[in-house]
Design a protein that fits this description.
single chain, mainly alpha
């Protein structure tokens, strides 16, 4: 007798499936792929945050040297840009994490 022929075991497995639901079952037990695409996407998110902050830093230095009054706004941008990129990334990450079996960005 095989294990998948055991009626008690089949009923227990069915009960787990019903209790979790299809998506929760996939979230808990299905493996997520880790391919180069996810690695590349993670690196691109990091690059977007770092490049924007670097551009704001260079702009702040340029405006400070030329005597522009609003150079300090670029310094605010240095702080806000990575926070904005992180917020968009986390929203996208959580949306994909809610679906079982979807690839997630990683570094």
């Amino acid at each position: 007798m095989r294990l998948d022929d055991d009626p008690q075991l089949v009923e227990l497995a069915r009960a787990v499936w019903v209790a979790l639901g299809a998506n929760e079952y996939a979230l808990a037990l299905r493996l997520r792929p880790r391919k180069f695409r996810g690695f590349l996407e993670g690196r691109l998110w990091l690059g977007a945050g770092a490049t924007g902050a670097t551009a704001f830093t260079i702009a702040a230095a340029f405006f400070f040297q030329t005597g522009h009054r609003w150079w300090w706004m670029c310094l605010v941008g240095v702080l806000l840009w990575p926070a904005a990129v992180a917020a968009v990334f986390l929203r996208s990450y959580r949306r994909r994490k809610a679906i079982g079996g979807r690839e997630l960005p990683y570094v």
